[in-house]
Automatic annotation (TrEMBL):
Domain of life: Bacteria
Record protein name field: S-methylmethionine:homocysteine methyltransferase
Limits of the Hcy-binding domain: 2-309
Pfam family, one: S-methyl_trans
Keywords of this entry: Metal-binding, Methyltransferase, Transferase, Zinc
Length: 319
């Protein structure tokens, strides 16, 4: 039984955490670097643990590690050795596991929520490029080359003890196929695959989300399918499109509704007007069972989702 299935067996929904990178920036970290949050693994790993802890306290049932932009090639470009790069990538898991264990061991009431899991973030190839192509998917690599890129980091994250892989902000089916093929090299390991989307029907490179979900539905090691770092206004339609093609759990963790400009490395536009707690209810009713936030969301947003999910769980237990 994969970790998501195990939680959803006893609870109606699972609360994901919120943004890590933009939350680190809010707390004073300088992420103006091609490594983005992976830079903080070198400079101030303690503050990463504090963010994980705050999300657990807010009600998150899952911590997504700070390895989104942590790649061996990226660290080597910054002067580290391959061994040092692997150590930092694995440190992202160790930090989250320690924060989870400390929080859970200190929690008095363990009956109203599941024991949280640690999802090791596997960002797309475009995140390594640091040019915004995770929102375009205009790669010049083939499937085999993408497998070669992802293999060493995935191997390191698994060895570090992550409960599941969070393959997130995937912009194209090509990269999803590469990851699904790579998972076969690691029997017993599960991953969720979450796409970035450009509108109500299409992932970032223009392919239909329904076609992506249909293809991934056949892969047992894919534990859930969904979208992240996408405007909340597109989420209802995307859930409907995914649910028509798969019985796997659907996950959604959109951003605040603002748009990221890769050239200025800044967020622009207005935030989504509806509260995350109200949105979470409608997303759940439409079929999403794993709900959280991505860029520009914070522990308060996750708290508002978790408060509603805990009440939902109480009603679930009474049935």
């Amino acid at each position: 039984m994969n970790p998501i299935e195990r939680i959803l067996k006893d609870f109606p929904a699972m609360v994901l955490d919120g943004a890590l990178s933009t939350e680190l920036e809010r707390r004073g970290c300088n992420l103006n670097d091609s490594l983005w949050s992976a830079k903080i693994l070198m400079e101030n790993p303690k503050i990463i643990g504090q963010v994980h802890t705050d999300y657990f306290a807010a009600g998150a049932d899952c911590a997504i590690t700070s390895s989104y932009q942590a790649t061996i090639d990226g660290y080597i470009k910054h002067g580290l050795s391959e061994a040092e790069a692997v150590r930092l990538i694995q440190t992202s898991v160790h930090i989250a596991v320690q924060a989870r264990d400390d929080f859970w061991n200190g929690l008095e009431d363990k009956t109203s929520r599941p024991q949280p899991i640690v999802a090791a973030s596997v960002g797309p190839y475009g995140a390594y490029l640091a040019d915004g192509s995770e929102y375009r998917g205009d790669y010049k690599l083939n499937e085999q080359e993408l497998m070669e890129f992802h293999r060493p980091r995935i191997k390191a994250l698994i060895a570090a003890g992550a409960d599941i892989l969070a393959c997130e902000t995937i912009p194209c089916m090509l990269e999803a196929r590469a990851i699904a093929a790579l998972l076969k090299e690691f029997p017993g390991v599960y991953a969720w695959i979450s796409f970035s989307a450009k509108d109500e029907l299409h992932v970032s490179n223009g392919e239909r989300i329904a076609d992506c979900a249909e293809w991934l539905d056949k892969h047992d090691q894919v534990a859930a399918i969904g979208v992240n770092c996408t405007s909340p206004k597109y989420v209802p339609s995307l859930i409907n499109e995914i649910s028509r093609q798969t019985k796997k759990p659907i996950l959604v963790y959109p951003n605040s509704g603002e748009h990221y400009d890769a050239s200025t490395r800044d967020w622009q536009g207005a935030t989504y007007g509806e509260s995350f707690s109200c949105s979470a209810r409608s997303w759940y009713d439409q079929g999403a069972q794993l709900i959280g936030g991505c860029c520009r969301t914070n522990p308060d947003d996750i708290h508002s989702i978790a408060a509603w999910v805990r009440q939902l769980s109480t009603n679930f237990d009474e049935k």
